Amino acid sequence: MKSLSVRLGVLGLALLTGFTTPTAASADQAAPSPTVEEQRLGRAAPQEILRRSGFDTVAPEFARALETARSYGEARRAVAREGSRLWRRAVDRAQGRGPAEYEGREALPWKGGGGRRAGLSRDDDRPLYWARLGMTRDVRTWEPEFGLTDGQRAALLDELERTSRGQSAIRYPHGNGLKRILLTGFDPFTLDRDIRISNPSGATALALDGTVIETADGPARIETTVFPVRWQDFTDGTVERTLRPYLPKVDLFTTVSQGRVGRFDIERTNGAWRGGFGDNDTIGRTGTVPVSDPASQPQWTTTTLPHAAIVAARTGRFPVYDNTSVTEIPAGGTEAVVRPDGPTPGSTARAGGGGDYLSNEIAYRATLLRDRLGLHGTLPGGHVHTPVLQFGAGNTTEVTDPEFVRNRLDIIAQVRTILRVAAEGS
Fold it and tell me: Rounded to two decimals, what is the model's pTM?
């Protein structure tokens, strides 16, 4: 999720090279209709992912639950129930609970020769993503006999987003002796470049939600949530609304997203700038990151993660870098320049270490919230960019392969170790 790295020539399967043209959101919607993101659901790869994970039943079951609702109140309860159920099912699947394979479904021929396609590996984040889109499409296009106002439909969609992303399921045990860690991931993105894409940050969130890691200082409980790759949701404050209740209570937080090929980056500095790359609805936004109280808004925020300790530790097979580079317009200047060692005094942000897309923005918003809550000196927090999740050599059509699964599992394991090191170094 680093458009900056594209400009620097860092190429990768899922980096932001922009194969679609961002479009402006239309203000006129004559009748309920699916979004651009939801319209991709009918393509072959998403349908295969849903079938092979068993998540192809989610949207039909949800549609039946909606049809039983006889009032807006009943619909709201059904949405909250089914959204929460989807999140729990995805987490359970990722952590080895419940069925992993599709069962009793049509076997599909394996193009690699010999045998059949089995169910997707448990570490896959894509079933959650595509199943959720089936549910949001149903809410968006549903026209019940009792009628829905635009505000009520928007509230149902908001409830579904929050519950199916784990944002309403963050729970830490009471009592002392247990550290609390909060981690966020993202949906898949750049789907018009490759519809098969998985996001290792989302997979990590599912794999680690509710788990406990042992540190030198004792156990630490991890709670997670997943965010959309859409500018408007961030403009509407989804990051701050989700994180504000928990930052004063946790001992460590990190936002996580997919970054560059073959490496992890601990992003030192985040910038207050949107670079305009198209999101999952192919909508672009360019300008200063919109936040509350813009008069006090800084151009830059910084990590408080123990970056030196993380980089020095042996956390896994991918190298980990302390990324200090930013792009700025120097004070009194007019042209953007890259600064390898971070911003200079009085400069204007044009990209943080994590670029100018939503990975930089979630890091900026989370660390700005930390600072506005008066926690800069006491709460370790920042952003981790994972390696790009790559398919095996020569795989241009299959939705999975052994190398793809190995890469994702290794990334998840390395993030878990990075969290342990961060918790011990804080």
Answer: 0.90
DSSP state of 145: T
**DSSP secondary structure letter of residue 402:** H
Cβ atoms within 10 Å, residue 79: 28
Q: What are phi and psi of 228, to 5 degrees?
A: -75, 160
CA-CA-CA-CA torsion sign (65, 71, 74, 76): positive
% of the chain at pLDDT higher than 90 = 86
CA 116 to chain centre: 31
Give the Å distances, CA to CA, from 174 to 179, 180, 250, 315. Answer: 11, 10, 12, 30
Q: What's the CA gap between 103 and 119, in Å, rounded?
A: 8
Question: Which amino acid is it at 368?
Answer: L
User: Using an 8 Å Cβ cutoff, are 4 and 356 in contact?
Assistant: yes
- Taking the chain, what is the end-to-end CA distance rounded to the nearest angstrom? 27
Cα distances from 141 to residues 84, 138, 157, in angstroms, run 21, 5, 11
User: Which one, of 125, 372, 138, 81, lies nearest residue 239 by Cα?
Assistant: 372
Phi-psi region of 69 (alpha: psi -120 to 50; beta: other; left: phi over 0): beta
Over residues 184-194, the pLDDT tens digits come to: 999 999 999 99
Dihedral pair phi/psi, residue 253, rounded to 5°: -140, 150
Burial 299-327 (b: 16+ CB within 10 A, else e): bbbbbbbbbeebbebebbeeebbbbbbbb
State residue 215 phi and psi, 5-degree precision. -120, 170
Using DSSP's 3-state secondary structure scheme, residue 104 falls into: coil
Weakest mean pLDDT among 1-5, 148-152, 185-189, 385-389: 1-5
Task: Please list the residues that pair with 348 across neighbouring strands.
Answer: 329
pLDDT per residue over 118-145, tens digit each?
689 999 999 999 999 999 999 999 999 9
Q: Is 115 exposed, middle or buried (0-12, 13-18, 19+ CB in 10 A)?
A: exposed
Neighbours of 237 (CB within 10 A): 14
Query: What are the CA-CA distances from residue 138 to residues 54, 158, 160 (Å)?
Result: 19, 13, 11
Query: C-alpha distances in angstroms, 202 versus 86, 301, 374?
Result: 14, 24, 29
